[in-house]
User: What shape does this take?
Amino acid sequence: MSEQTPPQTSAETAAPYGSGATPAAAPNALRRVRIPHLHEMKQRGERWAMLTAYDMYSAQVFDEAGIPALLVGDSAGNNVLGYATTLPVTVEEMLPLTRAVATAARRALVVADLPFGSYQGSPEQAYATGVRFMKEGLAHAVKLEGGAEMAPQIERLVTGGVPVCAHIGFTPQSEHALGGYKVQGRGEQADALVADALAVQQAGAFAVVMEMVPAPIAARITQELSIPTIGIGAGPDCDAQVLVWQDMAGLRGGKGARFVKQYADLRSTLAQAARTYAEDVSAGTFPGPEHSFDS
Assistant: This one.
């Protein structure tokens, strides 16, 4: 019997990320975004977007929209769980959120935040936590906050097979030590921030988030690093940008941060839908015959 050429897999037939959208009629041709794709995009000068996601529906929507990377942030603390800050968030709270996003996203790279207190103690603590997020949360990578002081943790994670995205500038888990929400890297702090960026790259981080950093300093760091920079309040010259999705889509109430651009008004849309639903129930127009079953 003659040998037959095996059919090509979807990974073999799909175009690399960044070469155009995959037609909706060919869902099996979707190809997972990998870390090398993000590095290739930096080399080509292509900018990309990242959004937070904390549940299956937001993950599906953003994945279908072509967002290449999703962050299951500990920002779930003040966007999902009702906390005032990210500090109370636990590993046990983050794992099911991460698993939901990773299971729902078919193409996007899923990065999970390591909560406060789950990695700062030692490289071995960081590795143990990172492994849980990879095994139990099904994450593709993890993110941790800190610069040069976190280099041993990053190196241990990467050596053990856990990809790491670093986070420098304003680091929310250190808000009390930093004296609140303040721009980082101004004046004499600039060189230290550049040193932090170089240190996390040297330790093996595949990308670095820069939060609330002066635009010229972020541009300088982006130029000096070979890994992608992801800005949030760090100006237009980063390789990528990330926003909390509830900020981006207008679900959060009140005044937003200066660096947020609101692309929709979901809070008003949901409120109107809820009011209309309540009015229909009160008036007896819902459920109607079309929503009821015959005997």
In short: The two ends are 61 Å apart (CA to CA). Confidence is low (pLDDT under 50) at residues 1-17, 19-28. Strands lie at 48-52, 69-72, 109-113, 141-145, 164-169, 207-211, 229-232, 240-243. The chain has one domain: 35-249.
